[in-house]
Amino acid sequence: MYDFNTLYEPNTVEEALALKKVHPEALLLAGGSDILIKLREGKLAGCDIISIYMLDELRGVSIQDNGELIIRPLTSFTGITMDPLIKQHVPVLGDAVDQIGGPQIRNIGTIGGNICNGVTSADSATTLKAYDAILELSSADGVRNLPYAEFNLGPGKVDLKPEEILTAIRIPKESWDQTCGHYIKYAKRKAMDIATLGCSVNVKLTKDKKHIERLRIAFGVAAPTPIRALTAEKAANGHAVDAHLLDIITANVEADVRPRTSWRASKEFRLHLVKELARRATVASIEKAGGTIHG
What we know:
By secondary structure, the chain is α+β, with helices and mostly antiparallel strands. It has twelve helices and 14 strands. Strands 4-5-10-6-7 form a five-stranded antiparallel beta sheet. A four-stranded antiparallel beta sheet has the order 11-12-13-14, sandwiched between helices. Helix 5 (about 90-95) packs antiparallel against helix 8 and helix 11 (about 245-250) packs antiparallel against helix 12. The longest helix is centred in the C-terminal third of the chain and has 22 residues, at about 265-290.
């Protein structure tokens, strides 16, 4: 039994924003893969719900004239994986969300819900952070564009105001152009499991493929929130594509992470994974970009 008070079903985004302004405490129902479970368990008894599931204007992937990639928040994980623009420009994002749950969850779960939940294990979060994503947060009073790097405030806490709805995820052209990435999820099982640690790396090489023009490294479950390894990125940028590059990454990648011990893994094991996954994902990204590790 689903014990809720009132269900609102707006027909447009404008109506949804107006409802959210009047009922800021109401919960948003997108795919429902999280909220329906909590409702059934009685954890959200008596709540009001605004269902945005039928708002197709919040679904799909497009590209602007300036090359900015726009991902609408109601796009399902399957929709992300199968989308031609994602396959062409940021295939690593499709690879990442294709490791979420099983087919049923990927068909119904949405990328917007995945990041708005604010959990550090969200498989889409690391890649979006590594690609400098910008979140379009809308309310009846206007639109606020926030770098995804500033969105996570703590475990399960995000900078989404009660009257706001996530209406777009934007990836600037300079973040994906001539850039190749790789995502690795370490979990106890190969399917239907939450990440023990996730690592997303992307790289842009110089034209001769011999140096790093830009490197991005992001982790999930290596801190209370998805996090970028800024120290390692800074140390690697501009470096030659050689074995010493990997030594530099492993020597610096721990500086920005704060893993903890849980029933899934110890802090020490997660620190080991931080180094190893960063190394492997970097090698894979460089190879996808046409480079070769020498020495």
